[in-house]
Amino acid sequence: MGIEEYGGGQQEHSDVLVVTTNDVPGYDVQRVIGEVFGLTVRSRHLGSQIGAGLKSMVGGELKGLTKTLVETRNEAMERLVEQARARGANAVLMMRFDVASGSDAGTEVCAYGTAVVLAPRV
Description:
InterPro entries: UPF0145_dom_sf, UPF0145_YbjQ-like. By secondary structure, this protein is α+β, with helices and mostly antiparallel strands.
């Protein structure tokens, strides 16, 4: 797995800015729209579960599960942006991820934050 497969985040030229901070330097919040989130749940396939079980005996990174989690986080982030855009936002402030793992259900990832309309400070 190459380095590009380990990361995620926003596309370079997105029309909705997503940040983990409370504000954006040089911009003022014109309107707070409210909470938005993107949610996805992924199950692990049998092959990755068997591989993870074998790997846990000898130690080391579970690369298949790492790749699945990266893909899951990216999907949750895309859904967050879609929801913010649909509600008229051009930014999401204080974005966070919440991850929960169920033994049978798989892994749930929720990206959430506050949708706002930003304008350049004058």
